Amino acid sequence: MADKMLKFVKIGQQNPPKRKVDLRKEDFNEIYDEFISNKAKEQSSRCSQCGVPFCQVHCPLSNNIPDWLKLTAEGRLEEAYQLSQSTNNMPEVCGRICPQDRLCEGNCVIEQSGHGTVTIGSVEKFITENAWANGWVKPINVKTELQQTVGIIGAGPAGLACGEQLRKSGYQVTIYDRYDRAGGLLIYGIPNFKLEKFVVERRTELLKKSGINFFQNFEVGKDATLNQLREKHDAILIATGVYKPREINIPGSDLNNIFPAMEFLTASNKKGLGDKVEKFDDGTLNAEGKNIVVIGGGDTAMDCVRTAVRQNAKSVKCLYRRDKENMPGSSREVANAEEEGVEFVWLSSPKEFYGSNKVEKISVNKIKLGEPDDTGRRKPEIQNDGGFNLEVDMVIKSLGFDPEDLPKLFDNNDLQVSKWGTIKTNFETLETNVPGVFAAGDIVRGASLVVWAIKDGRDAAESIIKHLKQKEISKIKVA
Ligand SMILES: Cc1cc2nc3c(=O)[nH]c(=O)nc-3n(C[C@H](O)[C@H](O)[C@H](O)COP(=O)(O)OP(=O)(O)OC[C@H]3O[C@@H](n4cnc5c(N)ncnc54)[C@H](O)[C@@H]3O)c2cc1C
Ligand code: SF4
């Protein structure tokens, strides 16, 4: 093994090359080039094959990372793919957009010893893209069709992963989604420069070819109630994500040209997919030639600032109330935004929006960080002096998301939710208090990550299968 692996001392860390800033600002394509095969093999060979692989421990899907790195280093790429896909329904998506610095790569032993982490995400993407190119990624070939049916509400990563796992076991699966395209935030939230849309559409097509039925433009709560779907299916999964934007309640918030992040990003993604988007085409949601201020410091805010750059904004500023060290956004995405010319205004929060009809100016409070609060993070406190004004043509609010009122929307007041409005489930089974109704992804966790949504979808599928088997047994006993 030492021959092929443990090369971290001799071979330095390398990621696939990033496209030059001037070029990547001109389009919405992904910013990283592909690994060539030899580079992927070489980088995989840096893995130290730890006895207790902390990368695997810190991957929510417990991916067998050291094993597929070794197979890649040995050039056994089909086996590497088979192993990688056995724990992950979308390895090419996770390889691209997991915040690896906080998960697998951040816990790589080589990283801890100062040699620079194995570039796990890039290799995961390489293995799966190579598998697609070679025709190794195939639709599910169901051996025995089962009669029981499952209705899944939401075609985001949680719903898609659950649907795929159920279909592999032969169940009839129908996925309902209120959008016109499947993919959830993968299609309309996350911009192309992080995740090109063909990657998502290719997955959806594969699931369609596997026999999963998709009902798009179908909003549960409007087109059917939860109970109507329960009558139709043997089990239900709720995987609706969280979409209610958090608001800023300061004077002037009702002025025009102040938009929630998802409205801005969805318009941009739809344009990229070739749709007609009236509010973009008439200039309302287009940042071109405008002074843009994005409020917030998470990954969604980073996606907004970088989208505005690509729309040729005159200037792009990000206003955040803490400092760079205390930002929730991934450090990789902050660095990308800085390279692309975004100006970060740290330790500042908006006080008031001014303008006669649409927003023209923001007055900003300076902030200092006080003592840590209950969460352990230092509390932002307004400073009495040092405030300033910013000229602005468009404001994008990116302060996070809350769940919609699902019991009301679904016309089912029995459905229990937490004090935050997320759905309450049994931690072990992911079943809600309504029998036969399960829930997964952001609607249970609150706004989280794609990899966690996939993990929840897989876990929910396991529980649903147990539930359906139990149901069959009960039927036989009654008969
Ligand atoms: C802008 C942005 C960028 C992000 N970037 C990253 C990133 O880089 N890396 C990362 O890991 N995570 C990222 N995330 C988080 C990640 O996208 C989510 O955690 C993940 O998509 C959650 O998956 P989900 O399946 O639970 O929900 P979603 O992806 O939100 O899917 C829910 C689906 O349910 C549908 N739906 C909702 N209500 C109904 C209804 N009543 N009837 C029918 N259908 C309904 C919606 O249309 C949607 O398609 C980002 C999030 C945002 C907003
Ligand atoms: S799924 Fe995410 S955390 Fe797990 S190995 Fe892949 S990139 Fe790392």
Summarize this structure as a short list of keywords or feature phrases.
binds flavin-adenine dinucleotide, 16 strands, alpha/beta, binds iron/sulfur cluster, Fumarate Reductase Iron-sulfur Protein, Chain B, domain 2, 5-stranded parallel sheet, FAD/NAD(P)-binding domain, 479 residues, globular
**Average pLDDT, to the nearest integer?**
94
Q: For the largest beta sheet, what order do the strands appear in spatially?
A: 3-2-1-4-16
Basic shape: globular
What is the terminal-to-terminal distance? 59 Å
Task: Write down the oligomeric state.
Answer: single chain
Number-wise, the strands total 16
**With helices defined by DSSP (H or I, 4 residues minimum), what is the helix count?**
19
- Extract low-pLDDT stretches: none
Which class do the helix and strand fractions yield?
alpha/beta
CATH class of the largest domain: Alpha Beta
Helical residue percent?
25-40%
Q: What is CATH's topology name of the largest domain?
A: FAD/NAD(P)-binding domain
The CATH H-level homologous superfamily of the largest domain: FAD/NAD(P)-binding domain
CATH level-two architecture of the largest domain: 3-Layer(bba) Sandwich
